[in-house]
Every structure is written in structure tokens, then in C-alpha cells.
TrEMBL record:
<comment type="similarity">
    <text>Belongs to the binding-protein-dependent transport system permease family.</text>
</comment>
<keyword id="KW-0813">Transport</keyword>
<feature type="transmembrane region" description="Helical">
    <location>
        <begin position="74"/>
        <end position="98"/>
    </location>
</feature>
<protein>
    <submittedName>
        <fullName>Carbohydrate ABC transporter membrane protein 2, CUT1 family</fullName>
    </submittedName>
</protein>
<feature type="transmembrane region" description="Helical">
    <location>
        <begin position="138"/>
        <end position="159"/>
    </location>
</feature>
<feature type="transmembrane region" description="Helical">
    <location>
        <begin position="244"/>
        <end position="265"/>
    </location>
</feature>
<dbReference type="InterPro" id="IPR000515">
    <property type="entry name" value="MetI-like"/>
</dbReference>
<dbReference type="Pfam" id="PF00528">
    <property type="entry name" value="BPD_transp_1"/>
</dbReference>
<dbReference type="GO" id="GO:0055085">
    <property type="term" value="P:transmembrane transport"/>
</dbReference>
<keyword id="KW-0472">Membrane</keyword>
<feature type="transmembrane region" description="Helical">
    <location>
        <begin position="190"/>
        <end position="211"/>
    </location>
</feature>
<keyword id="KW-1003">Cell membrane</keyword>
<dbReference type="InterPro" id="IPR035906">
    <property type="entry name" value="MetI-like_sf"/>
</dbReference>
<feature type="domain" description="ABC transmembrane type-1">
    <location>
        <begin position="75"/>
        <end position="265"/>
    </location>
</feature>
<keyword id="KW-0812">Transmembrane</keyword>
<feature type="transmembrane region" description="Helical">
    <location>
        <begin position="14"/>
        <end position="35"/>
    </location>
</feature>
<keyword id="KW-1133">Transmembrane helix</keyword>
Length: 279
């Protein structure tokens, strides 16, 4: 009995759980502090000692946000932009990953390496030519202009290629070809059901990255009716007298959709991680 208790409460496990608790606290604390500031007046932002308990101004601060910016319109624009980008990236990346993993064609390795090399190029370097092309095609102040440059995702292609290469056997693909299945039928009926965990992982990554992207959206979108939530919130910081309670209230409510998306797909996200460790 004593040996069993010692195994359950070994020093290694105690240290591991202690580290996990501390890491969880460090990760959650910024969100908690953001919530606290969203419920407080602006003066609480610079108070010493810092305020750690919620106040009673959450609704009042949020109403102030609604008076300053078209919050719900910007949220809708952002949801549409992120959803379209995520779906297009999943479609293109999975098809490209399937091709790179299971087909042989001239220049495959060179093309794949070229796609990966684009990941090391800072996105700021392409800002001017991308803006010129979007303006040339008359896509300024449109959501399509804000999303089109994110449709091709090198990281997504790499992740899908690796996952499909490990999870979908060559024998299964060859058997489907012998049965007369087209390449797209193989992808739709065999590959897609297998890579759903990778879909969830890549979808969460792309959705959150697109939601938090600011530079390109701020460059392309100048009409308040086409603002995304990031651009709309940045317009709150235009004066010397910034209401931090109001600003953080807007940031708090703008974070809620990300939490909802993660909670909806977290099981698939976790399964994609554990599946690799089990293998």
C-alpha cells in the first residue's frame, strides 16, 4: 500500500504537476487581467498596486466601445474573412499535401522546397507589391482584397504533406486506383476522413492567425464599413487620452470567438497530437 502511494506521489510527478500549474497560471493570467481591466475605469490601468479584482463597469465600457466603432459589423467582417481564409487554406493545403505525399511528378522536390523557402521571407517585404496588385485589380476596401494573399499557406501544405504521408498508406491509394477511383475521389472518400484531426489543427492555427493579423488589413481596409475587428479596435487609440478600460473591454469581447472556436475543435486538435505520440 505504501509503495503504491509513493508511486502516485513521487517527487518527479509532484515537480511535473507543480510546473504545469505554474505554466497554466502564467498562460491564463494575461486573459484574467484583461478581463479585470475591462471591468474597471481607465485610471485602474496604472494603479499601484495593480488591481486584481473585477469591477462593475464591464457593460458601461462595452457600451462606450459601441459608441466609438461599429463593433458588431467589424466582428462580422472578421468572422467572414477568417472563415473563408480557413476553408480555402484547408482545401488548397490538403490537395497540395496529398499531391506531394502520394504522387510522383517532375520537379516535385524542387517545387516543395521552393514553397517551404517562402516561409523564411518576412511578410513585410511583400507588402508593397501585394498592395500594388490588389489596388490594380480594384480590391482595396474589400474583404476579398484583405483575404486573398492568405489563401496559399506554406505551413499548411507542409503539415498536410507530412500527415498524409504518415497516415495514408500507399497500398490503400493503389487499391482505390485499381477499383477505378479518380484522384479526387480518392482524396474525398479516403484521405479526407483520415486527416480530420490534421484539419482541425491546421484550421485552428489559420483561424487564430488570420484573426490576429493586423498589418495587411490595416493597409488595405480604409472604409469603416469594411473594417475588421483588429482595425476597428486600433481606431480607439487615436488620441492622447486613451480610455484603457474601454479599449480592453473591446479586446475582451473580440477574444471570445477564438475561445469558442478552440472549444469546438479541441478534441480533434488533441487527437492529432496524441495520435503522433501513439504511433
Amino acid at each position: 500500500m505504501k509503495e503504491t502511494v509513493k508511486k502516485r506521489f513521487s517527487i518527479g510527478k509532484i515537480l511535473m504537476y507543480t510546473f504545469l500549474i505554474i505554466a497554466s497560471f502564467i498562460s491564463i493570467f494575461p486573459f484574467y487581467w484583461m478581463f479585470v481591466m475591462a471591468t474597471r475605469p481607465s485610471a485602474a490601468y496604472n494603479s499601484i498596486p495593480p488591481t486584481m479584482t473585477p469591477g462593475d463597469r464591464l457593460v458601461e465600457n462595452f457600451l462606450a466601445v459601441l459608441d466609438k466603432i461599429p463593433f458588431f459589423g467589424a466582428m462580422w467582417n472578421t468572422l467572414v474573412l477568417c472563415a473563408v481564409v480557413t476553408l480555402v487554406v484547408l482545401f488548397i493545403s490538403s490537395l497540395a499535401g496529398f499531391a506531394f505525399a502520394k504522387f510522383k511528378f517532375p520537379g516535385k522536390n524542387i517545387l516543395f522546397i521552393s514553397i517551404l523557402l517562402t516561409m523564411i521571407i518576412p511578410p513585410q517585404l511583400g507588402l508593397i507589391p501585394q498592395y500594388y496588385l490588389v489596388a490594380k485589380f480594384g480590391l482595396l476596401d474589400t474583404l476579398f482584397g484583405a483575404m486573398i494573399i492568405f489563401f496559399l499557406n506554406p505551413l499548411g501544405i507542409f503539415l498536410m504533406r507530412q500527415y498524409i504521408g504518415q497516415s495514408v498508406s500507399d497500398e490503400l491509394v493503389e487499391a482505390a486506383k485499381l477499383d477505378g477511383c479518380s484522384n479526387f475521389r480518392i482524396f474525398r472518400s479516403i484521405v479526407l476522413p483520415i486527416i480530420l484531426p490534421a484539419f482541425a489543427t491546421l484550421g485552428i492555427i489559420v483561424f487564430t492567425a488570420t484573426w490576429g493579423e493586423f498589418l495587411w488589413q490595416f493597409t488595405v481596409l480604409r472604409d469603416p464599413e469594411s473594417y475588421t475587428i483588429q482595425v476597428a479596435l486600433s481606431s480607439l487609440n487615436t488620441t492622447n487620452n486613451v480610455d484603457f478600460g474601454m479599449m480592453l473591454s473591446g479586446v475582451f469581447w473580440a477574444t471570445i470567438p477564438l475561445v469558442v472556436v478552440f472549444l469546438m475543435f479541441n478534441k480533434l486538435f488533441i487527437s492529432s497530437i496524441t495520435e503522433g505520440s501513439i504511433k
